[in-house]
């Protein structure tokens, strides 16, 4: 099982670049099948690049740091 602490530690690696653009990422849930659900907030809400931020930024960092992660979804 993936711990919230593991996910938060990994999110801290990507969070500064998201915050630099006026947004942030918040952990919502880790499902039983190791899918991490996050909320993109601030400037990320409604931004056309938010899907790319989620997949190319958040998901890549989480999967690189926590191999058990099966995917990342926005809620």
Blueprint (SSEs and pairs):
Elements: H1 4-20, E1 23-30, E2 35-42, H2 50-65, E3 71-74
Write a structural description:
- The chain is α+β, with helices and mostly antiparallel strands.
- It has one domain: Fe-S cluster assembly (FSCA) (GMP Synthetase, Chain A, domain 3).
- Helix content is 44%, strand content 27%.
- It has 2 helices and 3 strands.
- The chain has helices spanning 4-20, 50-65, and strands at 23-30, 35-42, 71-74.
- The model has no long low-confidence stretch (mean pLDDT 95).
Describe this protein with a few key phrases.
3 strands; alpha+beta; 2 helices; GMP Synthetase, Chain A, domain 3; 3-stranded mixed beta sheet
SSE run = HEEHE
CATH superfamily: Fe-S cluster assembly (FSCA)
Strand percentage = 25-35%
> What fold name stands as the CATH topology?
GMP Synthetase, Chain A, domain 3
Give the count of structural domains. 1
**Largest sheet, described in full?**
3 strands, mixed
Distance between the termini: 21 Å
Question: In the CATH hierarchy, what is the class?
Answer: Alpha Beta
Structural class call reads alpha+beta
Number of strands: 3
**Shape assignment:** globular
CATH architecture: 2-Layer Sandwich
Helix content: 40-55%
- Mean of all residue-level pLDDT scores: 95
The number of helical runs is: 2
What's the gyration radius in Å? 11 Å
Order of strands across the biggest sheet? 1-2-3
Give a brief rundown of this model.
The chain has 75 residues and is of the alpha+beta class. It contains two helices and three strands.
């Amino acid at each position: 099982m993936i711990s919230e602490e593991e996910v938060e530690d990994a999110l801290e690696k990507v969070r500064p670049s998201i915050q630099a653009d006026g947004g942030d990422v918040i952990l919502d849930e880790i499902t039983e099948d190791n899918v991490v659900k996050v909320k993109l907030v601030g400037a990320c809400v409604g931004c056309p690049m938010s899907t790319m931020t989620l997949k190319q930024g958040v998901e890549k960092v989480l999967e690189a740091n926590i191999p058990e992660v099966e995917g990342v979804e926005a809620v």
